[in-house]
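Chain A, query sequence.
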Amino acid sequence: MTTLATINEIFRQHSIQYADVCVGDENGCFLECSSGTADPLESLTENRRYLIASLTKSVVATMFVQLAAEGHFYLNEPVRNFLPGFHRGSHRTITLRHLLTHSSGLPDMLPNNNELRASHAGLAAFVAATAGQEPAFAPGTATSYCSMGFGLLAAIMEKQLKQSCAEILHRRLFEPLKMSDSWLGLPEATISELVS
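Chain A, predicted structure.
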């Protein structure tokens, strides 16, 4: 079976509606295709934009650990040193390392997550709501996937560097890697282009 036929079969078996695939190495791309079970509205192009969600955790984690290596904070420091609302009960023992390793006991999603998103609440509102949640277990005693922990990491980076997380990632990670079409959230100018 050819590589392209294999890719198409995988997409069919898993009911993947649409995907672009690019496989390459240091010599460049040697397989590029658009495939899936739905008819694509557009083919693979250089300027195609993709929305990713949980994959951003690895990007935020990379930046956070780099900043820790530079001495902006230490991974074993408690969250209470940086954010309000973490000075009580078991919140006091949650460290930055716990946030990075999904071992804080905090929830993956907040009970009012949908309402916060619908109202376009800022990061501060998510941080405050997270501080109001009781950990499901003592920090460091178990692991449980925790999206909110990465929101807290973003807030800590912003506080320490006095820039938005998007700006920090763009300036310190995406630009040096020449990832000129990568953002955490689309820039206003790009949103205007899409809407007009």
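The beta strands are 19-25, 28-35. Helices lie at 3-13, 56-69, 96-100, 113-118, 123-131, 147-161, 165-174, 188-195.
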